[in-house]
Sequence to fold (172 residues):
Amino acid sequence: MVLNLGTEIPSTPADGKVNTIWVPSIKDINHPTASEISNGTDLSNYVTLGGWSCSPSQDTISDQRENSSMDYENPGRKKISGPSVEVIDNTNTEHANQNAAMDTLKEGAEGYFVRRYGKNTDRTFVSGDVVNVYAVRIGMSAKDAIAANTVLRSKVNFTIKAPGWAENVKVS
Fold:
């Protein structure tokens, strides 16, 4: 594809187009099924704007040769830094019966986060959707600091566990 200078490229606003689903069981993170995802708990309405923190990165492997004046590198180990999710926390409030995030993401729980970008959040997951899947173990949660003009929130930490994570995989 040739891109001519001055060609306008459309963009899609992110608002209302990110799903976060907690799925208790996925057979193959590289081939999640729509059925597996539909058996999960939709936490999308609980995740605060900017509350998802899960930054994949990759180390490099030095590949130096004594007959060269250049240093070469190869892709190395992959890792996730700072995995946590900030959620609405309705504990002890008049909305305590609407507290799925805190009720689901208990310390020690194991499962999968499935994240879909680009479709309205009220759309059902279907074959062909592209998602990210993270196998996780939930760690401790902590109440966020209270400030003026905010809502009650908690930060839920998690770790990546085997088999790891898969990004940009198609739902089957």
